[in-house]
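Researcher: Checking consistency across runs. Here is Pls/PosA family non-ribosomal peptide synthetase again:
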Amino acid sequence: MSDVSNRSALTGGVDGGDSRNTQPGQPQVIRRDLPYRPSPTKRPVPTPRPRTLDDRVLVPGPTLEASRARPGEQLAEVFEEAVDQHPGAVAVDTGDATLTYRELDGRTNRLARHLRGRGTGPGDVVGLLLDDPVESYTAMLAVLKTGATFVPMDAGFPADRVAFILSDSAAGLLLVTDSALAKVGDPVRGDVEILSVTGAAAADIAACSDERLGPDSRRTPGREHPAYLIYTSGSTGRPKGVVIGHPAICNFVRVAADEYGVRADDRMYQGLTLAFDFSVEEIWTSFLTGATLVPKPAGVSLVGEDLHDFLVERRVTAMCVVPTLLATVEADLDDLRFLLVSGEACPQDLIRRWWTPQRRFLNVYGPTEATVTATMAQVHPDRPVTIGRPLPTYAALVLDTTDPTRVLPFGETGELAVAGVGLADGYLNRDEKTAEVFVPAPIDLPNNPSGLIYRTGDLTRINADGEIEYRGRIDLQVKVRGYRIELSEIEAVLQDHPAVAMAVVDTFEPTPGTKELVGYYSLVRGAEPPTDLRARLQDRLPSYMVPAYLEHLELIPMTTSDKADRRNLPAPTGSRVAATGPVVGPATDVERGLVAELATALRVEPAEISVEADLFDELGATSLLLAGFAAAVRRRDDLPSVSARDIYRHPTVRRLAAALGDVVPAVAAEPVEPVRARPVAHALTGVAQLLFLLASGFAAAAVLVLGYRWISTAPDAVSLTGRAALWTAGVLVAVVLLPVLAKWTLVGRFRERTVPLWGAAHLRFWVVSTLIRTNPMALAVGTPLYTGWLRLLGARIGRGSALFGAVPVATDLVRVGARTIVHPEASLQGYRAVPGALEFGPVGVGDDCVVGEAAVLDIRTWMQDGSQLGHASALRSGVTVPAGQVWHGSPAGPSGSDYRGPDAVGAGRLRRVVYSAVLAGLSWAVATAVFALLVGLFARFAPQVAGLIGLTGADMGAHWWFFLVGAIAVVALVVAALLVGVLAVLTLPRLAALFVPVDRTFPLYGVRHVAQQIVTGVSNARFLVLLLGDSSFITGYLKGLGYDLDDLRQTGSNFGTQLRQESPRHARVGTGTMVSDGLRMMNTELSHDSFRIRPVRLGRDNFVGNDVHLPPDARIGDDVLLATKVMVPVDGPVRTGVGLLGSPPMEIPRTGAGPHPNHPATDEELARRLRSKNRYNASTLVVTVLLRALGVAVALVPLGISVALWPAWGLWALGPAVFLGPLLLMVWSALLERATLGFRGLQPRTASIYDRYFWFHERLWKLYVRPVLAGTPLLVWRNRLAGLSAGRRVFDDGAALPEKSLVSLGDDVVLNSGSVLQCHSLEDGRFESGRIRVGDGVSVGVRAFVHYSTDIGDGATLAADSFLMKGEQVAPGERWGGNPAEPEADDAPVPDHRAPAEPAVPVSVVPVLTQPFTEEVFLSRVQQYLELHDVAWATNASVAVLDTLARSLGADARDDLARHLPSGLRVQVPSLTGYGPGHGQHAVDD
């Protein structure tokens, strides 16, 4: 049989000399009496401390009293002493029979002797499964008399639970009654012996002597054994065993007998199962005082009236009861002299009902881990309910919930901790959990033998009277719509109603992601369901705490320990309580229509909705739910159209109806026929693109072959290096000039045109755009070399300007004035794709302008001199920003912000020239060294490779091992390179940052600028962030970079996989903040010739959505939700405790769906699941690195074959290899995405970030590859292979599709560059995913963002830089735009984003073009500008102005002016004769 005393987590006694060994395979129990710790990093060994009492410790007397148990005393001896004191008193009265203490002792001795004869003794574990009270008392006492440890179980336990307890405790014997065993079934494993005390062994037991066993027989010299193990519910779904030693339980029963006031003449109701340690209150206080136990009949559940009748009939005078059960008894009990409640919070109303002057009424509190009870209060209806003061020998402390090592002074609220001799020995087989809650006492405590305290997990406060106020369980706090709510507070208000007998509050999700409160209640006998219950809740609680549902139950489900069984509460059947104030009905037809649709969305009756109730705080609406509501409203012709922005700005039905106004008669929209490209043209274009790629491979191979043949014949190393230098210089110049030559040859000048997709013009444009975007000069963005290159391509860029934005493609259409700064990630493409066509149009930026980070300038836009466009803003087609004005937003409009960077410092032409020369020289030197090294290696090893596998390749199959070795070598090299890269990333930016002090302005293109470029470039290692993001490892990596992560609260997903920064040493993120993908810390402030590094800070408890750019002057504080693509404000008050949505940002409630129901409820569960997540993420990291490295090896296979075949085949061997290698890598990455999903598609899911499903989904993101071969059918085919459902002739110009199998694209869909279709969100630790359906002929604009659970109808358009929120439904043919996106009209006015208090500057000072640039539009705007009514006169005036202007221009500028004028106007300007289209240039189109 097993020996519990041998299950110490460490060997060694108090002095470290105990040589006892733990037997292999036996469970472990932490022993309080041993100075052990579960691991070297867990609990330190307690050391002696001065015996003084801290004033933050609450005890019932002047100091912490020593134990009242006698040295070495065991619980069996306490009982025998009680028997000797009152042998003839009645110990048990079952109604059918009575037993005196002497008789009970005799029964116990007979069973004890029988057990001893079977081998049961000290250290053994015996399970108890009995349903007869007398047999239960006998078995418990008999086991104690043998010196064994008993484990009580209830006959109502499931078989699985009984089996687990027997296995976990390593019990060797199970004492049962036949009836109890029959109820449970057969849960016992083969090595557990079963003894039925009511079966065949009963006669043998009765034949044993009733003499007591000697006290020495129950002891092992030098060793202690626990008195009992009792199992409580565990957060893992399995119960955990608490080990109670004899010193603790003997002390408690003596204290309780002394303090409670139970008398010898009392008749104590014994209704609790032995498996609930509250039964100790009933049984052992009666034993010690000589009182009589009155057990409830076996197999009967007594509640309410039945319990009342039993207590009266059996003349019960004392009762220990759970408040929930007491609340079911309505009539008073005149004979009841002593009443003790425990097990859960006692409501004030219960005290008023049951208190009388003659009755001793105690409210006691104690976790099992403190041996039954630790505190006691004598209650009174006129005093607030508390759990009183500690019992003698116990002490109480209140700990800071954020820093459990800090003890709070009296008056502050925190976590209750208990100390004293009554602490349990720990949890059986749960070393980590024991070390988590049994922790070293942070202050000196005399008479605390373990040196530990127990953290209860309960919120409490010690008041001015020295009593403990119970504030509820920490793990019973829930978060609903962003508010943290203590459920017990709501329960107390419900139970305070005179008609309510019992109440329980829990959460319920009517739809996934929508968490609501439900108040369950039962009634006192004869009461009717109260009609004022809701009003009472509203009067005493804030609106967010009022339950959405109130559910009347005949009986609240109960556990075996007579507590409310929350797990078995039913789903509410009643209607949702929609508002928390008086219901105000609709007054207009619009309000009635809105209420009807809102009721449908909320799944309530319209009569329950108040038009003055807040949609979020009171009605509990979520963004997804309101998206469906808005879509339903838009489908109705009798209601005005509504958008998400309207709802957030006017969050009540009444305010929303007033803002929307009257219904505007809808003009019937003509059916939209999607533009469809010709299938043959699509196929031929794809083939031509494939052939171009193949030809490019041969061209690259030819360059390499020629270079190798010339360089490798060099007689010595010096000559080889010289030839490599010459060859590299020529190749670099050729590569840089290749797109210039191709552009002027294939396209000439880009002009404002529309050309069909999938045709010759499209093909020529694609070739040029591919050469531009893949050119090495794209890496030099922001440098003078880059600007000069763009000028060669036809872009007109003024002197002194700096362009850090995305590479423009239609360069002739891009004009940037002098001294202008274009910030990183800004888009000035000069073209866009629409269904069936490519549209080209001018993008003009004047002198001294500022184009903000991630800003988008659509075609036909203009920024006049001195104007500014804020970050995360979009200028719509046909719109002009007037001179000197500041605009921001999407769509952009006037604002009162200022986006200028540091002052100019005069970085002149010489600095730019020197910088360019140095940059070009360094690039040349590096390229020379790499090429020379490759030539040397190839010359050395290529012949051997060819010899190994044959020059013709005929016998390659016989040399498969060579490719295997090569693959292993490549994988090893990739892993080694990764490790070297990590080292470089963690060191180089830190060293370079030393040269760039913060908050000082420096000129561009100097040493400090180079240092800063090293910091930015090296620290933003995309693959490392992708690899480590969404795991615990990312935080250590960021700290290594230099991030200040404050007091980090590890979640396992603190940061996503696409974090970017410009100076990690000056990036700070507060504790509790979670960041999704795409955050950019904008540390660098730029002007056209200077820069400055500024700190960027994120406060505490923020949540940052996707694609957010955070500037140094961000006006956000703590607890802010930054929605996806939000424009972070740089002026106004500091926002705290709110959400920000859109561009420009508007405040929304700081709410969300709240934690997932499967989110860890306790710190223990969180720690355990975080460890599991870390293990899974670690495996993902290893798998990702190996698979990516193997992909490189696969891509190099064609190159390895070509190396072998090159001596014989030459160029024909190398050319296909250059093409096939990247193609294989593309296919490999697609197959990895599919393989990760098991070659199945994803399904919409919601999960906690601590669910295994989310970890699996994270692994998919690790294998995501950025779009390649944009604008070709190859990209679409690759995405189909990865799981995308795509129709025919889809044009993808480089969209991001993280979850391809959740996306469905129709025929002829157009996805512009930088657009994102994201099928998931991750907010405050809750993951959700859904599908995206894009209909035929849909256009998704540049950098537009589409969220999940959306549907875009056929022929619809989503404008550039728009954000389509989750749940939105775009009807066929509609045009949507904005952030957040909403339906737009063709003549939509420019929004005004200025604050009302700002001085009004007329928006229409400069003509604002919202239509294509035609002669009619031009004339109408000129007419508006001149305030004339005569179009002819306006035309004459315009011709005169244009003629004067043209005469002052040079030939090139005059030609450019002519090309941008409508033909009807151009021919009227004399000085433009002979200029414009048709003179030396051919168009983009055919």
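Researcher: Does this match what you'd expect to see?
Model: One thing to look at in this run: The radius of gyration is 40 Å.
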